[in-house]
Amino acid sequence: DAKTTQPPSMDCAEGRAANLPCNHSTISGNEYVYWYRQIHSQGPQYIIHGLKNNETNEMASLIITEDRKSSTLILPHATLRDTAVYYCIVNAGGTSYGKLTFGQGTILTVHP
Amino acid sequence: DGGITQSPKYLFRKEGQNVTLSCEQNLNHDAMYWYRQDPGQGLRLIYYSQIVNDFQKGDIAEGYSVSREKKESFPLTVTSAQKNPTAFYLCASSKMWGATDTQYFGPGTRLTVL
To answer: Mind listing the pLDDT tens digit for each residue in B51-104?
Structure first.
């Protein structure tokens, strides 16, 4: 699986957009980019995923660069409840098919 | 409501005892997973099951065992052979085994060995 690099922590003001970057420079053509988040002491929650095109759902937007070496998760109007650890994951095929590898993620703190 | 349940939420055991963590899903998902999380760390895959009556070792299977006799159930046994069992255990499921499939997680069980 390709490795990902995320900043260990970020801050965001409530009501503003939170832009969380992820570097995955060794990503291969068949790997998807997934984002999950984990609120303290709870199970992770799926947010969004994509392959090449930008994606948007009710929770967030995912912007993937044209070379696919990096991506950005955008929470358009962050609230205090968005404070969590955000994980960027790339998922390979072959023997790792279906397996998610969670790194240490980015701790996002949304403040009033 | 459809979802994944794990019980109990908190579990204490004495060193040397085996303990079984429950995981049940009513999502009609084929694939199920067990992860372990240590403080300040990401999740590590213990075991996974692509379909009923089948399961495979993940990255850290030593000291753990599982069964998958029913589609909706995937219990994890932490045996006395597991050297550092104190951790947060998370169960997940997905509709099928595959790179495009979202995993849904349960609330977790926090195991403490006394």
So the answer is: 999 999 999 999 999 999 999 999 999 998 888 999 999 999 998 776 567 889
DSSP designation for A105: -
CA dist., res. A59 & res. A56, Å (int): 8
Chain B nearest C-alpha distance from A97 (Å): 6
Contact A24, A71 (CB under 8 A): yes
Q: What is the pLDDT of residue A95?
A: 52
Q: Does A31 touch chain B (CB under 8 A)?
A: yes
- Cα pseudo-dihedral A107, A1, B29, B31, rounded to 10: -120
pLDDT by residue (tens digit) across B11-21? 999 988 999 99
Interior angle at CA B96, CA B94 and CA B99, nearest 5: 85
Size of interface A-B (CB pairs under 8 A): 59
In Å, how far from its chain's centre is CA B42?
15
